[in-house]
Amino acid sequence: MELLDFARETVDxxxxxxxxxADVYAGRGRHVSVEVENGSIRSTDVGRTDSLTLxxxxxxxxxxxxxxxxxALDTSPSELARQAVEMARAADRDPDFRSLPHFQEHQEVxxxxxxxxxNLSPADAVQIAGRAVDEARAVDPQAIVMAEVSISAxxxxxxxxxxxxxxxxxxxxxxxxxxxxxxxDDTGAFYDFDAGRNLDDVDLAPVGxxxxxxxxTFLGARRIETRPMPxxxxxxxxxxxxxxxxxxxxxxxxQRRRSYLVGRLGDKIGSSNLTIRxxxxxxxxxxxxxxxxxxxxxxxxAIWEEGRFAAMLHNSxxxxxxxxxxxxxxxxxxxxxxxxxxxxxxxxxxxxxxxDIDEALYINLGSLSIHPTSGDISTSVDFGYxxxxxxxxxxxxxxMLAGHVFDLLAGIEAVSSDYRSEPGAVMPTILxxxxxxxxx
Amino acid sequence: xxxxxDIAEEVVYLAGQRKVDFAEVRxxxxxxxxxxxxxxxxxxxxxxxxxGACVRVLxxxxxxxxxxxTLSRRQLLAALDDSxxxxxxxxxxVSDPGMVAEAAATVAESTAPFGHDVRTVDVKEKLLAxxxxxxxxxxxxxxxxxxxxxxxxxxxxxEVVANTRGTLVEQESSRVFAACRxxxxxxxxxxxxxxxxxxxxxxxxxxxxxxxDFSLRAVEKAKILLSARPAPAGTMPxxxxxxxxxLFTHEALGHNAEADGVWSGQSLLVGRMGxxxxxxxxxxxxxxxxxxxxxxxxxxxxxxxxxxxVIIENGVLKEFLHxxxxxxxxxxxxxxxxxxxxxxxxxxxxMSNTYTAPGSDSLDAMIKSIDRGxxxxxxxxxxxxxxxxxxxxxxxxxxxxxxxxxTEPLRDVSVAGLTLEILKNVEMxxxxxxxxxxxxxxxxxxxxxxxxxxxxxxxxxxxVGGRLQ
Lengths: 440, 469
Known about the structure:
Chain A is α+β, with helices and mostly antiparallel strands. Chain A is built from 10 helices and 18 strands. In chain B, strands 1, 2, 3, 4, 5, 6 and 7 form a 7-stranded mixed sheet that branches. In chain B, strands 11-10-9-14-21-20 form a 6-stranded mixed sheet, covered by helices on one side. In chain B, helix 3 packs parallel to helix 5.
């Protein structure tokens, strides 16, 4: 039976069994991965998955049943329905639950599936991984190279009791390399990656080289003094901050009053340089898709506008509870998450931002670990450089940084005009006026 | 799982006929139940059922691995063909051929001890028990409480492992985990408190849990944070409570003692076996067979009996954690540290219940020995870059130490250090021991249950990621 037909039949059976609402997410796919350890192929793996998640709602109480091994399942849709409804009946009623999403017709975003990715063989993945090793070792023959190539393709189907019936194929290819270079007791290490849904969007060859070149720059790390300092986030680190700031707009966390953004909607919290939007409709984007995991049509959301916290991200539950428009950000686990996140670019290039600053800590890779409730920041600097007189001076060892998210947001002094680009992601350089640095 | 055993044995037998160097079949079935009670409402109930199998082969020095979401004999035989093909496809890029230790075959059946079987507990009974914990959180939180949530999960896993060396192990275990999370708010500040408990066992863990004690602990943590000031920044002496000692032990040393990283050159312990790498007072152990602990098991996912691993003894590096392959590569005896998250993942080197062994010092003596430092409590999470040994540990609670006395509470804070430096900076080890903190350790995309602990521990100097005063 087609996946979508099975999903629809299960939804129908669940309503017959007594659910007010029901939905099903079913997926079938194949995953190929190749792992490299110290330059040698460690293993080549293939996984085939076949799974279903059924949710039944009775009086707003939710029963959820997840099954893997669907194809081999000897249980009928009616039996799955019975189990889910039994759980929903055991759950408390929830008057805040209003409805699952209704179906809204929309064209799917272009470029979510590429046959060329699905047709890549394990041997192709082995070749890609092998090239990464060669590239890294061309930089340093003694480089210790860890790498992974990961290829996925499959079909996802979503159906619900309000007419949602969507089936779509998707594909992705990811390639990451971690290179370690040792000189006696000194160690430099760095990671780089490339990812896309389409084979043409990934440039796999340079990843090994850039990881090894990055590792060389971290040799000779030194400690820095404990004191406040401007912080510059490089593209990999800035994107992590942008994602974190978008994720903080999670309406459920705010409605449940466990977020540092409770009561702050509409307030200007950050600097005027902070404008972040979420856009799931970017062709070929890694997080793109016209519909969320509940089958709700996604909306573009301007989350931060010139420092003002402008909008929350919703799923059907939080939108119903707030009587707001559903922005379509439901995840498969029942939560809320951003999709592709973009920040408004500034006027200076990254090189100009760096050359204009007398002293700063530059973070090349890593997140700032903002506490989702208190907004406190206390985190390690794992891949950082000291900047002195507008130039990279030396890599930094064993340093930490701390502050509060509101100080950080108010202190966003500049966003670069140039950026690293990945499908559905623009990753610029960001200057923060000051954070507390702990070192020697 | 009689059928599963038969199928696994048959596929392994047929693999042997195909002249592979080694083949292994695992069949895994799991069932989970979970509930969430939040803000007084138990409105989310979930169950899952998983079943699947995998075949792993070593052919001409190359590994191939195929997992399938079914127990069908036909598909498992196809998976065997595919895994052999995969291994052959990667052979030309294998410069470091795979190998498997010559270990005695293990034939065993094992069921981890439990009291009240979670499968016999009705969903309504589970909900009632979890509601009791959440009600206590709301009661103790009082007017400061803005959010309370208690999660409950149980999982029963049955695993059959068979390989071409004659191993055939069937084991079953049940894990129960509960966590209480509260957010309290006062004067515009919101802070979170968190408490967790997890065992390999049955529903008795929940039945024996005092709702008042468990949830009150989460509330008290948040209350303290509301009146705490930020920790100071800089390098200073720290004391770890037993949970923080466990986290430090797991992150800073444990991951570096995983032999796959040693073989690949990624661990900083390469070439240091037998050397003094820590202060004399440091002994670190990874011990799977600690009954009831969250990282408990008797046989690993390759069917190897799990040994007690003394990684560091009195400061000297003694043993790494091994799979069958790393044991062969490093010329060591397999010690049963190969673990896989379900059927869709390969077994890799993992920790179990990891702790620092107790010493002879008292917490009082540690506090008195510090002029200005920080006492770290309530370990929350951490990570390490093994190639440098640079690790980070987050503590949910902290207390300032000034002139030999505990003074004021501090907010949650992270500390960082370099493994080899900090192991030598351990000055005092407490005489207490607790290994009661359950967690899920992530590595290479796989998450496995572990436990951590130890005694109180004093480190003479490390970086505290606090605020400038």
